[in-house]
Amino acid sequence: MEPRSHLHRVLSEGHFAVTAEIGPPKSADGEVVRKKARLIKGYVDAANITDCQTAIVRMSSIASAVLVMAEGVEPVIQMTCRDRNRIGIQADLLGAAALGVKNLLCITGDHQKFGNHPEAKGVFDLDSIQLLDMVRRMRDEGKFMCGEDLTGARPEFFLGAAANPFADPFEFRVKRLAKKIAAGAEFIQTQIVYNVERFRKFMEMARDMGLTEKAYILAGITPPKSFGMARYMKYFVPGLDVPDEILKRMKEAKDKREEGINLAVEIIQQVREIPGVAGVHIMAIEWEEAVPEIVKRAGLHPRPLEAEVRPAVVVEVEKPVERVEVVAPPAEEVPEEAPPRVEIPVEAVKEVFSTVRSSIESLREGVNLLHDSLARLERALLGGEVVPAEAPEVPRVEVKVEERPPVEEKPVEAKEVPEEKEVAEEKKVEEKRVEEEKPAEEVEARVEEKPAEEEKPEEKPAVEVREEKPVEKPPVEEKPAPPAEGVEIGSFSGEYRPLSERAAGLPEDLYKEPGTAFIREVEIGKGEKAFKVGGTNVLPFHLFEGEMRHEPRVAMEILDVKPENWPESLARYFADVLDDPAAWARKCVETYGAEALCIYLMGTDPNYLNLDAKHAREVVEKVAGAVDVPLIVWGSGHAEKDVEVLREVAEVVGDRGAVIGPVEEANHRTLGATAMGYGLPVVASSPIDVNLAKQLNILLENVGVALDKILMDPSIGALGYGLEYTYSVMERIRLAALYAQDDKLQVPFICNVGREVWKAKEAGLPSDETMGDQEVRGVLMEAITSVALALAGGDLFIMRHPKAIELTKLIIKELMQQN
Amino acid sequence: MIVAERKPIRRVLEAIEPYQRVLVLGCRGCVAICSAGGDREVETMAAALRLARKRAGRPLETGEATLIRQCDPEYLAPLREWADKYEAVVSMACGVGVNLIADLFPEIRVYPGVDTTFYGANTALGEWQEKCRGCGDCILDLTGGLCPIARCAKNLLNGPCGGSQGGRCEIRPEVPCVWHQIYERLSARGELDRLMNFFPAKDWRPAGHGGPRDRIREDLKMDK
Amino acid sequence: MAITIGVLCCHYTNQAGEEDFQGIPGTVIVRRYPCSGHIEVADILRTFEEGAEAVLVAGCEAESCHNLSGSQRAEKKVQGARKILEEIGLEPERVRFAFLPRLDTGPFMQEVKKTFEIALTMKSKS
């Protein structure tokens, strides 16, 4: 039989075939396709042109095939069942054949759900096997599907199909392959092979059924481009089997691309040894430049036969061919009948020079950046300008051990045991300008081992608010901070007697009940400034019965656009930097000692300014360049928009280990995948409900996000706006996690406090007699909300006001010291 | 049963915007069983509409009634009397009820109160799943009683696609791959060879792609 | 500014009488049910129709519900009512559920007060 195509000829003559994949562009730019074709010309026997792969709209396969032919590469067009019914498919295939296309790969196609038009109606009039059968009968029997005669020229395709040796049920995979071959498939391209052992088994079964005699099987090969891509394929692409060994090699490799190519070459060499493997199909996704290198190193270059591609239609070449840019095969390998060489036109040369020049430019920028970082490092290490990230001096607690009558040890049964159970601690926070108000907050940390029989009225643990000047000023004031006389934070005073002392005489197990599990530890950021949250097995600050490996942390919030409605009492701290995110970030870190930053991309909200992903990227890039503390990037909360924005942002902060979010049920798949690709932790936001929070964690886990990459955002309510509700939901979540073995909830909390507090009406009302001072009120509202939520289990807080942060941290610090 | 879901109330409000007196009409058939359009849901819908309109300063009067079925002309008869009292009807029945009212009572303005979603089974308390698509040419005899038309995202007829992994569909991890289930079912019965048979392309006319479908049972029809 | 709130409760959550509600500076619509599981979404919405700014649904603590899961069902109904309130442009926080100890009027009245505070906030916002 006369071969139906060049690819067919290569295979039928017994050569080990090489095909590659060309993904058409998401535009009408034919030059993209031509360029990709030129890149691989001479290195492959044919090139597959995908048909809107992963259901994303791209230039059509058939039209791209014609462009590819014009470059002298033989195309294999792909036809999916997703977008056309039997009428459309037959019509398009007649057309393709008339245009000179000789190879056809019949596939069902990725479901539209995964693409950029998930709303589309999927056609699926036929499945891939029915499609093969239909085309075979058009070709061999001259019949349309309906049975009518096809008179005149028939579509003489060399027919191919796909096979996935790694999908389930495994035993059925070979049978399905047999069905495809029986329906008409003459060559098979398989899913990407990383697990060579499993593929070997598949081939063995195929051989046993005699399939390798009936069809040519080409193994799918993909060089991983990065560790992130390998991981993405492992966890997110259904039907792909990536062994841990591959991940490990990619992770450890210094030059990821080099290692990717090595891996591909090794796999080619291994599959080549398997009997029945007739060739390889290289899918270098968005990395066509890798193909020549792989083919060369695998010893498959030069190709044995030269393709004679004669497009039925000659496509005019608009731009002169830029031969210079192409990694062209060595001259001696250019086939004798190569098309006449085009003289190098001046335009092309100019373009080359400008490319080189811009590369030098960016190199220079890189060097400058390095200089800057070096200088910063030097300053940080050798003094000069000390970055007060960690406050060097913190107000100390004055612990006076009050003398009490010694407690006699008595048997537990004794009812009238000591009255000392009453007071756990006494604390005083002194504050200026909050006058004879009732205690604004009560830091009650009462621990009652037994129901108190009597109350001792004279001892009340409370934060007293006095009119005195604070005794100690926190060190953050050293810097010439902006108008800061508004609120000053005092220190704790009072005494604390450890529970062990107070409970002396009682058996420990009577009052100690640590949880049965630990909250997972999530690492925020990377490098020196990174920290962990979580890692506790007790209710917050119950240090007497268990451990809290990490104290609750605070991230300072900055916005991507200048905020419009911040009360003056808050805005004045940042007045000079509000319209420059980078300066803002620097101020937070350098002046206010922020240990982490949260960039809230409010401007991208479609209901607000609707700024695009590029804007977000720029802002995040600037901030990332300005500071080295861990980052949290918080999208607008619009599920769809956030996917677009955070994907872009993830690229920038990928190696910073930044936290991204909020991830909701609506976008958990896509954002989960993005986060996994870069190994980033995510904020899982659910609307203040135990079960919804848990469900989202489960969903994220299902798509492959590990629980120790999740921070739960329970959607909090500020003081006066549902704080109690939040508290109770968080408490219930934490109890379930620690005491009811609910492992899906053993995840730290992140609480977005600042935003909720500062949008409350009360935070912005002017100072008056009833409401008191505006700033004091706002600061207290924010600090109380955070502290209350810390008591409910909050692990990471996003806050705005420097003073509120100071107060919160002070209280947390004190609570952490008591044990 | 036919499964339905309450329409967003905003949409219903938009539909009845011009009217002051509206009848909310439930159905005791499928939609009552799937808790979308029975007595309770009628009460809820009516109360929600009234409340919204009251807040908007344009109070609404509602009537509430639930018929035994809305897909049979004889049960719709009372509407003839009620029609004068109301300016519009919000039907909480499936789309069949809305259509039949519109067919029989051209003078009545009828609007849907639910979205009709699928033919499904009540698989757990508060949970319904699609099991049939009414494609008019049942092939369940060949697939162990499990339907690849209704339950496979790509309507495949010749076995699972490459996205089937661990018995799960690639569409959503909580959805089982029906072809995997069919494979296991037939495998347990020793009938795997059934799957080796080529399943030809389906004729979609009985599924509704040949225009609206009807059914005639001659022995029941009365000649006029 | 007269403020009305609604209280739909299981009969066993309290023994509050007329005088208990006198401390609330507004109108309290009280409806008692043999079990909170009996309270329907429509009942909640109707209470709003009657002019309530906020509604409290009170049932017994989960483990002490006489009908085993009555109060848990009621909590879900409240979720359903919240969803509808949101759809028609009202704040979902206007309706809340409280699990209460049996026949203890104290905690019950505290919840009533909280509900009143919510009503107050809602009224002042609108």
Automatic annotation (TrEMBL), chain A:
Which GO BP terms, alphabetically?
methionine biosynthetic process; tetrahydrofolate interconversion
UniProt keyword terms in alphabetical order: FAD, Flavoprotein, Oxidoreductase
User: Which Gene Ontology cellular-component terms appear in the entry?
Assistant: cytosol
Q: Where is the composition biased (Basic and acidic residues)?
A: 401-480
Q: Per its UniProt record, what InterPro entries does this chain match? A: Ac-CoA_synth_d_su_TIM-brl, Dihydropteroate_synth-like_sf, FAD-linked_oxidoreductase-like, Mehydrof_redctse-like
* Cofactor names: FAD
* Domain annotation CO dehydrogenase/acetyl-CoA synthase delta subunit TIM barrel: ranges: 521-762
Pathway(s): One-carbon metabolism; tetrahydrofolate interconversion; Amino-acid biosynthesis; L-methionine biosynthesis via de novo pathway
Pfam families referenced in this protein's UniProt entry, alphabetically = CdhD, MTHFR
Q: Which family does it belong to?
A: Belongs to the methylenetetrahydrofolate reductase family.
Its protein name is Methylenetetrahydrofolate reductase
Source organism per UniProt: Thermosulfurimonas dismutans
From TrEMBL, chain B:
- Organism's domain of life? Bacteria
User: What InterPro entries does the database record attribute to this sequence?
Assistant: DUF5981
Domain (Methylene-tetrahydrofolate reductase C-terminal-like) ranges = 111-205
Q: Please give one Pfam family short name.
A: DUF5981
Q: Report what the protein is called.
A: Methylene-tetrahydrofolate reductase C-terminal-like domain-containing protein
Automatic annotation (TrEMBL), chain C:
**What InterPro entries does the record point to?**
MvhD/FlpD
Domain F420-non-reducing hydrogenase iron-sulfur subunit D: from-to ranges: 8-116
Q: Which GO terms describe its molecular function?
A: iron-sulfur cluster binding; metal ion binding; oxidoreductase activity
Name the domain of life: Bacteria
Q: Which UniProt keyword terms apply here?
A: Iron, Iron-sulfur, Metal-binding, Oxidoreductase
Record-linked Pfam families: FlpD
**Keyword Manganese in record:** no
Protein name, per record: Hydrogenase iron-sulfur subunit
Organism this protein belongs to: Thermosulfurimonas dismutans
